[in-house]
Input
Amino acid sequence: MKWIKIEKEDFPRGLKALAETYQCLGPVKGEKYHDFKVLDENRPPDFDFLNTPLSPKFLVEPQSEILFEYTLDEKKEDAHILKEAQKDLPPRLVVGIRPCDAAAFLLVKRNFDTEKYKDPYWVRAYEALTLFGLACQTPCAACFCTTAGGGPFDEAGLDALMVDAGDHFLVKILTEKGEAACNTAGWENVVEEKAALDAAALLKETAESKIASTVETDNLKQQSTTALYDAPFWEEVSFSCINCGTCTYVCPTCWCFDIQDECYGCSGVRMRNWDSCMYPLFTLHGSGHNPRGTKLHRVRQRFMHKLKYYVDKYDDGIQCVGCGRCVVSCPVNIDIRRVCNLMNALPDPSTVCPV
Amino acid sequence: MIDYTQKIREIAARLLKEGTVDMVIGFRKGTVPMMNEPCFIRKPEEADRLVWDSHCGINLANYLYDRKEKIGVVAKGCDSRNIVTHIVENKIKREQVHVIGVPCTGMADKRRIGALSEKDGEIREVSEKEGRITVKGDSFTKTFEKKEVLQDNCTTCLHRNPVIHDEMIAEPVEEQTGIDPFEDVKRIEALSPEEKRAYFQGLVADCIRCYACRNACPLCYCPTCFVDESRPQWVGKSIDPTDTMTFHFLRAYHCAGRCTDCGACERACPVGIRVRQFTKKLNKDCVELFDWEAGLTLDERPPLDTYRPQDPNDFIK
Ligand code: SF4
Ligand code: SF4
Ligand code: SF4
Output
């Protein structure tokens, strides 16, 4: 595996070269928080951040995305034809994405890019990305990635991993895409692998030791789905929830959307918008019946999906990368770590005396 | 605050034991610093779950309605005003709630404290003592005077003591005097129409339309909110700026004369939008036009859902 070294003072020069081929994005400090934005000379990336409160999933699945357009104006040639909206999708380079967020794309991919079904919008946007991850050297208090299948230096889903080593970045090139971007940037200062590995390993160990919170997931697969569904704790767990959907909007692995048509005069669009299992409307039938009519149903669904149905379906861990965003952003402090541990520890009903 | 916690636990245990109430709604200690979680208890022995400190800013009136139980609820000044509003609006009967009144000295603004410590690192622990809040991170400790890090609405609160209660956990606190709650509104009123437009556009520019502000508000209890209606669809569902602005203005108008400025909306917003800037203007109008502050009396309906022949507007006659 190839390691290179990028002097921090050389970074802007490299980005400038990259901008000729790629649309470059990175964490930028706004008035209130950091967010992924298109970079330019006046808007350099700021790597002094914990993580962005909003996940970068919007790079692939924007909150609102126009899919089709039409016009009824018969003076126009294409009147009455529903046409796919044309989109400009240049190759995009994302610098400074956290390992958890890159790994999250892989979880979502399971649903949007399969043998049988491909979501063309998602696939195109995802394939246009080159991801230069930034290892987490000061993980947040609410992060639990190491027990959610990842880690602060995890490489899954990344094209290159950058490690902050003081005045320079040590960069592990992981894919051809990563290599190509480095060549374009002129980042070619190859360093000896052993030395780089040793330096990175030390930083990695320190970072991992700083992750203070964990989830227990070993039992989830064995747990009976119906026992979990009927578990006694849901009333208590869901009580404080206000069904605001914030948890699902900030989550890098929540993928649900809703299709809407909007018309303006005699033209219009079909779009998709983020949706959330926390909203009553999400499951409301045309008949007026709502199979998830109470907040208990909805809160249970969110956790059952992430921590049981997904686990059973893909047999590769939970649908959560442990970024901690929902923990921090939930206005009433519903904490997935607590719920996960409750679900994992639910006693097997066959061993519990029914009286 | 320890005394407050102790007193709340004693009262909750007693009420449950005597059978005065079936459940008590209060706060339990949160899992992240500066957050407590609304919770309920049904048994006297669960009373030691309940806590009280400066991080109980969520409005518990939001958890009372559409329930069958007789409920004991821990209520600070603003919560009690929203309970009054619920009673007046027939969301809950006075007899169904037993109000455990908490004289409030204001809630801490976790965003402000976070911003003031941003350079030092992430806050991992928080404690408070004698009007001071201390936060700790990996390599720092910082102490703030609580009055300097209050939630914005608490700095202008004129009703810290519960307006109704069945029992109080402590003697009333002194109410704040000599403050103008509408200073910020006046500044906006002085702007030109273009400036106002720009101000409000800037205010909601980051809105992600999650509706946490709406859902955190005890007033927003419509079975289907106008933004969720699809037959007819009043407002678009994308993040189109006009639709977003429509949501914010209409939400505020639906709260006119009912808003107690409890700050739950602002506290809940994941991207820190100052949504009270909308509702406060209407609160000010209610004071000026109708001499009205929401939730102070059980005997009167809010001004916008009543009619009196002596109403000042000529067009009503
Ligand atoms: S963020 Fe919290 S309150 Fe909002 S829907 Fe999610 S769990 Fe419920
Ligand atoms: S469920 Fe919460 S912690 Fe897990 S990936 Fe989503 S936002 Fe992050
Ligand atoms: S809570 Fe904040 S982001 Fe969500 S709808 Fe309200 S103002 Fe917008």
Observations:
- Residues 2-72+86-209 of chain A form one domain.
- Chain A has two domains: 2-72+86-209, 225-349.
- The CA atoms of residues 115 and 258 of chain A lie 23 Å apart.
